[in-house]
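Incident log, structure service

09:12 report received: a user says their structure output differs between two submissions of the same chain.
09:20 pulled the input from the user's history:
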Amino acid sequence: QVQLVESGGGLVQAGGSLRLSCAASGRTFSSYAMGWFRQAPGKEREFVACISWNGGSIYYADSVKGRFTISRDNAKNTVYLQMNSLKPEDTAVYYCASRRVVSTRHNDYNYWGQGTQVTVSS
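09:34 re-ran on a clean worker, output below:
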């Protein structure tokens, strides 16, 4: 029942920062948990971060913990991923996804955006 559109990707130098945004359509955004996943060429999709509908439950992959921050603004139907201290290993297409209950498993999500490319140069 929702459509997701990611934005904010780009090319940055190692150590730099980016903020990704995911805009959701529909009037029931606040009822959905949101997650960020990424996929690098030749690799399977990887969990990055997720947040419950009210922001009360937040989870991060160990690889990004302490560097990335997920947040949401239900009034704007938008979820964000602030990425600091970026590393070349963070290079991937980043996808926004949604489901009714928060989960770190990509198979649990039923709505997906088209992805936004993040490239981190060394």
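09:41 both user submissions now match this output. Likely a transient worker issue. Closing.
09:42 reviewer note: The mean pLDDT is 93. The first strand starts at residue 4 and ends at 7.
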